């Protein structure tokens, strides 16, 4: 490997949200990795710093070209310059789209279990969350189209947030499912917001299919949110894009993003995105090898050491979704403990850090060091449906060693009152 993903980078004391606890928490609750950015991106930022003047920044031609070339080459979607809008983040974009394309009291559809922030941006904007729960059968998730149709046909349903690849189940949606979503959305006049922020972290040899590339219908009834931030670990730079083909929505959205002050870059956000898409390909392809090696390590470990915990098969993201159903009601106990016993010191009051009361402090500290890319994803447990999904949890497995999973597994087992695993 040309790039060193094993290097340890100390993030405590660097204003990292993920590592802002008191040293006792397990930093497994937010989707950012602990790898340094690609040297190609660091060089571009250094050049920007060396210039030394940081006045208001605009969007250079190279930004449009970099997105256009990357999506054409890697994902087979041709995005014209006039259909791309800069925005400071995927969540700010979705929030603006909700405000612009629906009214208070109307419904926004989401497919649970899904990224918890979808719930809050819908509710914070005074809209209703309408869930179309995914079906989980024999270890595989799929969409429930009968339920989706009945919810789309509600005249109050104006928007659907699609997550492709889907956080947290790590699924790349297939053409048939996406096509069906498009057909139903067109039939009932629902606009699809396709959140594709995780799209570039796919299993080596696999690609995702952009919703807008499925058909003309899908392209015209959707707005796609994309970014280099998950892929290249740049979330703190606040840089993303909105792709919208339909001219009826394009200018409305540009104006709305400007109104919400989400359409202006800072001095580093376009430089980082351009460098990532122009020169980050080799780094990304090595990262994918590394992350999916880690995923395999977790899967192998569970299969041999804890067969009652299943890693749900996933071909994208650095999240591993664990099925705890065979632990009987342990999943529910775990959910309750995570919700009630979370350490209050972990940056946010977020039910995602494992309670210190349940883990030996030293082990936890050591684990935090070993797991330096790792995120335990249990946020959904705090959502309204946490009981329903309490059997599943996930962990970000960047730089994860099998050893590192052990304290968490011990915690799970201790929740059930059974003997602690070795
Ligand atoms: C599905 C999904 N969308 C959006 C975001 C956040 O995007 P941004 O930081 O650009 O607002 C995340 C972060 O974890 C995510 O998982």
Explain what you see:
The chain has 422 residues and is α/β, with parallel strands linked by helices. It folds into two domains: 42-279, 3-Layer(aba) Sandwich (Aspartate Aminotransferase, domain 2), CATH 3.40.640; 281-412, Alpha-Beta Complex (Aspartate Aminotransferase, domain 1). The chain is 38% helix and 14% strand. The strands form three sheets. Strands 1-9-8-7-6-2-3 form a seven-stranded mixed beta sheet, sandwiched between helices. The protein has a four-stranded antiparallel beta sheet with strand order 10-11-13-12. Helix 3 (90-101) packs parallel to helix 4. The structure holds pyridoxal-5'-phosphate. Residues 31, 89-91, 115, 163, 167, 195, 197, 227, 229, 235, 240 line the site of pyridoxal-5'-phosphate (PLP).
How many separate domains? 2
Known CATH architecture of the largest domain: 3-Layer(aba) Sandwich
Structure annotation, total helices? 13
Give the strand order of the largest sheet, numbering strands 1, 2, ... along the chain. 1-9-8-7-6-2-3
| Termini separation | 34 Å
Q: Provide the CATH superfamily of the largest domain.
A: Type I PLP-dependent aspartate aminotransferase-like (Major domain)
The low-confidence parts are 328-333, 335-407, 411-422
Radius of gyration: 21 Å
Helix coverage percent: 25-40%
